[in-house]
Amino acid sequence: MKIGILGSGMIVPTHAETVKELEGICDVAICCEPSQIERAKELKETYQMEWLYTDYDEMLKNPAIDTIYIAVPNHLHYEKSLQALHAGKYVICEKPFTTTVKQAQHLFEEAKKHKVMIWEAITTIYLPNVLDMKQKLANIGTVRMVFSNYSQYSSRYDAFCKGTVLSAFDPKCCGGALEDINIYNLHLVTCLFGKPSEVHYFANIQKDIDTSGMVVLQYPTFQAVCIGAKDCGAPSCTQIQGEKGYIKTHTPPFIVESYEWAENKKEPVNVNCNDSKQRMKYELLAFEEMKQQQDWDAYHKAKEHTLIVVEVAQLARQSAHLSFDADRLEGR
Question: Which end of the chain is more exposed for a tag (fewer CB within 10 A), N or C?
């Protein structure tokens, strides 16, 4: 997998550091806006990439690049992914995958048409600890309560309060707490339990954007509460409470460095199945294997999961009367 990176934001070094440790995967190019050229030059040199572009179309013409990593603001995910698919490239698109279900479905249809794959870059669902947690659910009996909190005071929130609206809080960029941070909770809960029957979002809204909020997901035997905040902070944790025991994590849902579980009236057991601190390792290896093996079964499972999360997030926004440009274009 030879990757061309679109974007030069904070997530790019994390991605590039991970790629350095993986065989068969390498970053060979980076494309940025002209205003970010110095930043991109630094990234190119640090991670020994061959090419630097300020023209996305030119990067897409490079036959040495087979995969594009989309790491640009949320509102550009659909458009830039579509361009890459039309160029016959595989695509890794950062979360949130798209703004609407219709956009997501169209990207998957275009990928099929061009005989390539498109994946959402979401660490949570590929982490060994999360996959092991899923296996442990049978040990705690019928689930009755789920709580997942990822709240982190944003470095951009002070500027937002003073009137400077950066992309993380900009409705035009599909920002906000739900799409930026609570999305990880949604991925975790739906990975473990599938699609909920009902979705409700109780959001704290300032200047037409949600700065924090609580998504309530209804399942047959329990309610799941997903809290995401960018205007306040607290230690991250997830608790799954069953009739026979519980499962608990103490780190954000995009890492899940370890977890503990216990049956009623028994001592908790600490578990760590992850073998790397590089949280992106597992998703990238999964994507490379799907690509090399042309594993369409695994690909379709990843696709269906992404479609569920996009739908849940869209329903959550609707319930809180939040809408972005893509929603309005589709008449929502």
Answer: C
Two structure tokens written together for 329: 């274009």
Q: Can you tell me which residue has the tokens 């001592």?
A: 267
Residue 252 class from Cβ within 10 Å (0-12 exposed, 13-18 middle, 19+ buried)?
Answer: buried
**Residue-wise DSSP of 151-207:** E---TTHHHHHTT---GGG-GGGT-SHIIIIIHHHHHHHHHHH---SEEEEEEEEET
Which of these, 16, 58, 50, lies nearest to 34 by C-alpha position?
58
Instruction: Compute the distance between CA of residue 230 and CA of residue 167 in angstroms, rounded to an integer.
Output: 13
Residue 35 contacts residue 3 (beta carbons within 8 Å): no
pLDDT class of 326 with cuts at 50, 70, 90 = confident
List strands edge to edge, sheet with 245-249: 198-206, 209-218, 223-229, 143-151, 234-242, 245-249, 259-263, 269-271
Phi, psi of 52 (to 5 degrees): -130, 130
- Token output for 255: 């890492």
Distance of alpha carbon 231 from alpha carbon 62, whole angstroms? 42
| Inter-CA distances, 287 with 38, 149, 184, 242, Å | 30, 28, 19, 33
Q: Tell whether the torsion through CA atoms of 293, 298, 303 and 305 is positive or negative.
A: negative
Q: Determine contact, residues 200/250, Cβ cutoff 8 Å.
A: no
121 beta partners: 94
CA atoms within 13 Å, Cβ hemisphere of 302: 26
Q: How far apart are CA 228 and CA 276, in angstroms?
A: 26
* Other beta carbons less than 10 A from residue 52's beta carbon: 16
First-last CA distance in the chain: 38
Q: How far apart are CA 266 and CA 75, in angstroms?
A: 48
Sign for the pseudo-dihedral over CA of 10, 187, 327, 6 = positive
User: How confident is the model over 28-68, as pLDDT tens digits?
Assistant: 999 999 999 999 999 999 999 999 999 999 999 999 999 99
Neighbours of 34 (CB within 10 A): 8
